[in-house]
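Input chain follows. Return structure tokens only.
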Amino acid sequence: MNSTPHESSIELAQRLDVSAVVAHVVSATALSPTLHEVVIGHAASVAGQPGNDVMVRLVDAKGKFVRRRYSVRAVDPVLDQLTLWVTTAHEGPGAQWARTAQPGDEVDLVGPRGKFTLDPMADWHLFVGDTSGLGAFYRMAQSIEVPGRAVFVVEINSPEDALTAPFDEGLGVTGIFIDRQGRAMSDAAGILSGLAAFELPTGEGHGYLFGEFNVMKAANAALLDRGLTETQISRKAFWRTGRNNADHGEPDKSES
């Protein structure tokens, strides 16, 4: 196996002051109709903290090299592995890679990336988004110290996407899964109804909004209306309806 990352990955890692590694696929498994789990070996060094992501170098349908960013679902430092949950409910280089990855395949990674990690001062944590954010949500929530509280408001495409995770005993957990019921992926009605379905807990809280651009923008406004401040909200658009992510993995954030 090649042990040297691509020159562009090395340059990118140096510019970002992170690491570049050549890893390998350990396993790739369909978890639901829209989520695939990819376990990658020789990669724990780029996993970072809960909430961080890695950049994967891929080839698109035209043979062009691009990068896609995926939040780390879990890390095993003993086995030197990290796990990604990749959404596959669309056509794109990342979805194609996750669906076809085979054990032993080389993976060029740069990381850790991302600036949003768990707020250590918060009494409760609200995770809002779609299945693209589920891996990040669960890794972050599993790092909450007891006693604490985690609330999940996640929109899913089918009941099989309502994947759960184990948590420490004593951690308060509330999960709200909203069936999309055929609504457009940019329609915020489902997420807004989920947010309206419960009272925000008492104490200091923090919201983490990871998902589709337009929906996360609407959810941000809703939480501000309910009393959270800008500093209590971490918002990250993972993708945007009708627009391919750029070659570096980020969605178009223009207002046009």
